[in-house]
Design a protein that fits this description.
Number of strands: 0
Number of helices: 2
Helix content: over 70%
Strand content: under 5%
Radius of gyration: 22 Å
Length: 77
């Protein structure tokens, strides 16, 4: 006999994510129809890309610093 809890939770999860994805796509589509300023959009995208790349750099440096502090060998063969 199948347990009903995973079936109910999986169905609930699929319905909620599907509904949220529908409204997210609809909202972005409606925002695109407004005709946003291209320069402002590119400037904001560039800023977000720089922030993301700096975040990745901080995480990588922290990871290597922590590994080196713990005495792990990070040299390539």
């Amino acid at each position: 006999m199948i347990d009903w809890v995973p079936v109910v939770f999986l169905t609930f999860k699929v319905l909620i994510f599907g509904t949220c994805m529908f409204f997210a796509i609809k909202w972005h589509y409606d925002q695109g129809k407004k005709g946003a300023d291209k320069r402002a959009l590119l400037r904001t995208g560039g800023k977000l890309m720089i922030i993301f790349m700096l975040g990745v750099l901080v995480v990588v440096l922290f990871t290597f610093g922590l590994a080196r502090m713990l005495g792990m060998d990070l040299s390539l063969p």
